[in-house]
Specification:
two-stranded antiparallel sheet; Arc Repressor Mutant, subunit A; 2 domains; 135 residues; elongated; mainly alpha
Length: 135
């Protein structure tokens, strides 16, 4: 087993995850850079493209590092996708504890917030009319 492999994380205890993070190289490695970048983004997470752009690292270098971190149980698929390079969907990766805690919900744009509020108001008005409260 190389020093890059880490079987400390079993996925059952928070202390196991902490131990797995502790044995990551502290600075300077691509794996640590990818991990730190995704962790600092919290529940928002990051796609491979976002990591590559932010870290000024080729996608071909980020992808295997992300996979290693996933295999170690340190990163998880958030269940969310975002548009990346060439408008392709990219999986949003988050730290394992973020993924376990709560999924990220994409913030609404101002236009979608207005449309959502209008729909809620129309539904409320329909209920009031149906109950004879509003004519």
């Amino acid at each position: 087993m190389s020093h890059f492999e880490n079987h400390a994380y079993t996925g059952t205890r928070h202390t196991s995850r902490e131990a797995a993070v502790d044995v990551l190289p502290k600075t300077g490695t691509q794996r640590r850079m990818v991990y730190d970048h995704i962790v600092t983004r919290g529940a928002y997470g990051a796609t491979i493209d976002e990591c590559a752009t932010s870290l000024d690292m080729p996608v071909q270098s980020v992808t295997p590092r992300r996979r290693e971190l996933e295999d170690q149980g340190l990163l998880v698929d958030s269940g969310v996708v975002r548009k990346g390079t060439y408008s392709q969907n990219g999986i949003v990766w988050v730290a394992a504890d973020e993924g376990d805690a709560k999924p990220y919900v994409q913030p609404q744009t101002k236009d979608s917030q207005i449309a959502s509020l209008k729909a809620q108001l129309a539904a409320a008005n329909e209920k009031l009319v149906a109950h004879g409260i509003l004519l």
